[in-house]
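W.,

You were right to be curious about this one. When I first looked at the sequence I had no strong expectations either way, so I just let the prediction run and decided to look at it fresh. Below is the sequence, 399 residues in total, followed by the output.
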Amino acid sequence: MRASGTLCIPQPMPLTVRLGLFYGAIFIGTGVSSPYLPVWFAHHGLSGSRIGLILSLPMLARAFTAPLLAVWADSFRLRRTALIVLSLAVTVAYAAMALPAGFAWWVVVWFAASSMFATLSPLADVIVLARARRDGFNFGWPRGIGSAGFVVGNIGMGALLARGSPELVLVWMVAAVALTALGARFLLPPDPVHEEGHVSALSDRMAGIGGLLRDPVFMTAVVSCGLIQSAHAFYYGFSTLAWKRQGIPESITGLLWATGVATEIGFMWFMEPLRRRAGPRNLLVIGGAAAVLRWTALAFSPPLWLLFPLQTLHALSYAATFLASLQLVERLSTPRNASAAQAMNSALSGGVLSGLATMASGPLFDRYGSSGYLLMSAMSVAGVLGAIRLYAAPRLNPV
């Protein structure tokens, strides 16, 4: 195409946009599965206790499955290869959930699907964090685009459920993870696992995990972050059902979830100077304190007008804590064990601690309803106490 005698050559899509679109592909599915998969299970006749069990089992095992999947991912030459394979496998597993095989089948298939899907984001974080450090862009920009995808899933599925069947939840999830597989191939850069381009031996990859497990500062950091992050378990698993008991329809539930994620996006996109000045330890304490306030208030089933301002605390209870955890883990790991470190961080925050909290949340919801949020408040308090201990670690002092 010519304009004023000059040949116009299409410019390639900026890397930050491509990385953001890949996050968006991941989270447009999570934005549906997190709030609405319990609705799909309930539609098929499962109780809160059984829903909690299905959701919690892969979380409980993630302390083992996530590091092992990270070690496996580092066996490839390119970082994106593992993301392609995992996304395709999850697509098949999600589709298999549609088979009318009952509770035991869902336990097994969801265990496999959730274990693999939960590894996608931390593996992507390794790529994007390295690129952000090397190319000098704000990690929050592409990650914020992913959060925008989460909002699209929230609102879109809420609107669909107001008019259609809960079966649409699974259809959306399958389509979204298939899109993620395409994105992993065509949006992610061909970055090598190791700068030298070689594949490290299994013994070296396992040794990297052992070093992290023996590091008391690293373990304090990931457990503290994990406690605050996993305190979202009751919210993720049962907020939709709790609000439904209050007479709040799914369409409004989607808006409530979207409000929280919108403030998360704003924090990631526009609060980078504040994040840098605060530092990861201060950010973790602030996020934990906001979590205590948020869950304590939700335990008393506040009216709808108060739910929207409470949802804005998601910017701190989730976004601030999440960014603090990534920065802490990056500082306390090396390129040799970066994948394992982020996977272990995710395994605790979205894994074993979330699994225990989710397993407890089911019976708590069945018996006490919204009062189950009080357990989440207690977990957040424990996370803040652990975060305070990190101030004694010289390795985390500003350079």
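Here's what jumped out at me. The chain is about 80% helix and 0% strand. And, maybe more interesting for your project: The chain has one domain: 14-396.

Coffee later to discuss?

I.
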